[in-house]
Amino acid sequence: MSNTTTMMSAIPTEHRKRLMRIARDVAFPAGTRMFEEGGHADRFWIIRTGSVILDMHVPGRRSPAIETLGHGELVGWSWLFPPYVWQLGAVAQSPVRADEYDALAVRLMCDDDPELGAVVGQWVGRVLAHRLQAARTRLLDLYAPYGSGSGARG
């Protein structure tokens, strides 16, 4: 993932410090399902250690891994956009330590401070654009007759 999508590089220090004040330290053992696609998106995480696999429900098939996330990366973006429903699923690939944020608290902070809201919105938007492209490429690789076509072009 591009370093402009990590919280450290995307959010200026003053705003990041405000957000960090409401973070809660959490841990997930390897194999723990953090959230299920279609569930209520009421929080998000920034990974400190470990890795998380994002997956997607495909009817009649095992949920394919879409992307693997690591240190400094955002887990969950659906909390920012109504109707606040997870668009992907996530499972801890290895033991994970993360900062957890209450979505409502962050949305209220963003409403109270338009500059913070703009920065958070741009950051999550970049993450979302990256994840959409990753999902598209992965699903084409798995299910299209010739994959994503990212190899040689005719």
TrEMBL record:
InterPro entries: cNMP-bd_dom, cNMP-bd_dom_sf, RmlC-like_jellyroll. Pfam families: cNMP_binding (PF00027). Residues 7-76 form the Cyclic nucleotide-binding domain. This is Cyclic nucleotide-binding domain-containing protein. It comes from Streptomyces kanamyceticus.
